[in-house]
TrEMBL record:
Annotated source species: Rotaria sordida
Pfam family, one: SIR2
Name assigned to this protein: Deacetylase sirtuin-type domain-containing protein
Keywords, sorted A to Z: Metal-binding, NAD, Transferase, Zinc
Lineage of source species: Eukaryota, Metazoa, Spiralia, Gnathifera, Rotifera
SUPFAM superfamilies referenced in this protein's UniProt entry, alphabetically: DHS-like NAD/FAD-binding domain
InterPro entries linked to this entry: DHS-like_NAD/FAD-binding_dom (IPR029035), NAD-dep_sirtuin_deacylases (IPR050134), Sirtuin (IPR003000), Sirtuin_cat_small_dom_sf (IPR026591), Ssirtuin_cat_dom (IPR026590)
Residues at which Zn(2+) binds: C165, C168, C217, C220
Deacetylase sirtuin-type domain sequence ranges: 33-312
PANTHER family: NAD-DEPENDENT PROTEIN DEACYLASE SIRTUIN-5, MITOCHONDRIAL-RELATED (PTHR11085:SF10)
Signal peptide: none
GO molecular function: histone deacetylase activity, NAD-dependent; metal ion binding; NAD+ binding
This protein's GO CC annotations: mitochondrial matrix
Length: 312
């Protein structure tokens, strides 16, 4: 159902929906065991031996902030719903799907943009300040590591807060500016969804879509997208090469909150093996890289990482 409202109260209503969505979030952390004292000691020893630590993080570090992931057992998007992320070719070639994507993302962004860093994000920022971190690569597009203060960071899959035109490459547009452009084009359109999905998405029906008008590039009137890597798209090869170079200069690898199921992240585990780097993994449940790890701890990142004492 589309709820139509007067222009003068649209922003207030929009904000109230964001608050409602945020407060109704489920617990998106899958079942886990608390870390033992032995787990803590072993991880602390691993970290203490590293002078040039390379960190690889995934969606599992942000579920504790209220952002669902895709693959977690029982609570991930794939387990809870039949919804699937839009493929890049659909976005590029199907105007109806392009329109649907932006309607969903427009509704989801006020909630997604207000999520805040949790103990894990802040811990990594603290480690960086103590010069423990050599480089950090994240698969997340939620900006929470940046909000926490991390700077030695590569966003492997981009960032939802940035916007790019796929036709002319225009990038001088923030996500908040795009929200205003969409609002100006759709001053009385609103749709309500109780479920927030990963990557600032919500679920809407065709009926809810109504007369929604999708955004266009302010420079060339082309198609715009969040500056993220869609499913079915490729990570920038220059970025991959840079990250591998940083990895080659590191002396150990810590994986936190990632199942490493996608090749874009797993490739760095394969590279770390080639460089003969020790690998530690903290993640609830199995990962694709377990076989390569010298240390694997299956627990919630926020329960163990803040307990690790850092010796620079």
């Amino acid at each position: 159902m589309i709820k139509r409202i007067p222009r003068y109260c649209s922003k207030l209503y929009f904000s109230s929906i964001a608050t409602e969505l945020k407060s109704s979030n489920e617990i998106y952390v899958p079942p886990y065991q608390r870390p033992s004292s032995d787990d803590i000691n072993k991880l602390e020893e691993f970290i203490s031996h590293s002078k040039r630590l390379f960190i690889l993080t995934g969606a599992g570090i942000s579920t504790e902030s209220g952002i669902p992931d895709y693959r977690s057992e029982g609570v991930g998007l794939y387990a809870r719903t039949t919804n699937r992320p839009m493929m890049y070719q659909e976005f590029l070639t199907n105007p109806k799907r392009y329109r649907m994507y932006w309607a969903r993302n427009y509704i989801g962004w006020p909630t997604f943009s207000t999520f805040q860093p949790n103990a894990t994000h802040k811990t990594f920022a603290n480690w960086e300040a103590q010069r423990k971190v050599f480089w950090h690569v994240t698969q997340n597009v939620d900006s929470l590591l940046t909000k926490a203060g991390c700077e030695l960071l590569s966003e492997l899959h981009g960032c939802s807060a940035r916007v790019v035109c796929v036709d002319c490459g225009y990038k001088d547009l923030t996500r908040e500016q795009l929200q205003q452009i969409i609002f100006n084009q759709n001053p009385v359109w609103i749709a309500h969804s109780n479920i927030i999905n990963p990557d600032a998405d919500v679920y809407l029906t065709e009926e809810q879509l109504g007369d929604f008008k999708p955004p266009q590039c302010p420079r060339c009137s082309g198609r715009v997208k969040p500056d993220v890597t869609f499913f079915g798209d490729n990570v920038d090869r220059h970025l991959v090469a840079f990250i591998k170079e940083q990895l080659s200069k590191s002396d150990s690898v810590l994986v936190a909150g990632s199942s490493l199921e996608v090749m874009s992240s797993y490739r760095f585990i394969l590279a770390a093996q080639q460089y003969q780097l020790p690998i530690a993994i903290v993640n609830i449940g199995r990962t694709r890289g377990d076989h390569a790890a010298q240390l694997k701890i299956s627990t919630r990142c926020g329960l163990i990482l803040p307990l690790i004492k850092i010796n620079s």
